[in-house]
Automatic annotation (TrEMBL):
<dbReference type="GO" id="GO:0042823">
    <property type="term" value="P:pyridoxal phosphate biosynthetic process"/>
</dbReference>
<dbReference type="GO" id="GO:0006543">
    <property type="term" value="P:L-glutamine catabolic process"/>
</dbReference>
<feature type="binding site">
    <location>
        <position position="115"/>
    </location>
    <ligand>
        <name>L-glutamine</name>
    </ligand>
</feature>
<keyword id="KW-0808">Transferase</keyword>
<feature type="active site" description="Charge relay system">
    <location>
        <position position="179"/>
    </location>
</feature>
<dbReference type="GO" id="GO:0036381">
    <property type="term" value="F:pyridoxal 5'-phosphate synthase (glutamine hydrolysing) activity"/>
</dbReference>
<feature type="binding site">
    <location>
        <begin position="143"/>
        <end position="144"/>
    </location>
    <ligand>
        <name>L-glutamine</name>
    </ligand>
</feature>
<dbReference type="InterPro" id="IPR002161">
    <property type="entry name" value="PdxT/SNO"/>
</dbReference>
<dbReference type="GO" id="GO:0005829">
    <property type="term" value="C:cytosol"/>
</dbReference>
<protein>
    <recommendedName>
        <fullName>Pyridoxal 5'-phosphate synthase subunit PdxT</fullName>
        <ecNumber>4.3.3.6</ecNumber>
        <ecNumber>3.5.1.2</ecNumber>
    </recommendedName>
</protein>
<dbReference type="InterPro" id="IPR029062">
    <property type="entry name" value="Class_I_gatase-like"/>
</dbReference>
<keyword id="KW-0378">Hydrolase</keyword>
<feature type="active site" description="Nucleophile">
    <location>
        <position position="82"/>
    </location>
</feature>
<dbReference type="InterPro" id="IPR021196">
    <property type="entry name" value="PdxT/SNO_CS"/>
</dbReference>
<dbReference type="GO" id="GO:0008614">
    <property type="term" value="P:pyridoxine metabolic process"/>
</dbReference>
<keyword id="KW-0456">Lyase</keyword>
<comment type="function">
    <text>Catalyzes the hydrolysis of glutamine to glutamate and ammonia as part of the biosynthesis of pyridoxal 5'-phosphate. The resulting ammonia molecule is channeled to the active site of PdxS.</text>
</comment>
Amino acid sequence: MTQPTPIGVLALQGAFREHRQRLESLGAPVREVRLPGDLVGLGGLVIPGGESTTIARLMTDFGLWAPVRDFHAAGGAIWGTCAGAILLAREVGGAPPQFGGHQDSLALMDLTVRRNAFGRQVDSFHTPLDVRGLTAPFPAVFIRAPVIERVGEGVEILARHAGQIVLARQGRLLASSFHPELTPDARLHALFLELAYTAVPA
């Protein structure tokens, strides 16, 4: 029996272990990605929640910006959750003043994302979320979550909370404002595996 293509989880900072556990519970082999060479042979890559400015700095330190863009250009699927969604977006608002109001990103997905739009850590919350394609609500966990303020042409909105976009897809790219890895519900991870294993080069 052929082993499935590995799925990568960017393991620089944040909730990468929880993503690994969800993916492995679905039978997917998982590789933690810290260096450009770790991307070779992957079918998909998850960029986890955490602190987006810290992850961005570490991506610079380890020379990952261009290799991740090249990975996607070659057909790799990418899912950004919370901080990861910020790093996927073409435009980012709400960057801290100490960073000059600028947030580095991969600029792969035609979105405008605003950092911490749902409030600070103390404003974290859980809510059932209606997701296009799922038959029952998904138990979404929001922690210092960004919001997707704008989507470009070709971006499919998959879920909203209180009228605001919190889950979207563009081709082989998926962005979620919330933390699906912090719930035992693995349906969104299954959706990403389907996207990764059916992806074809652009």
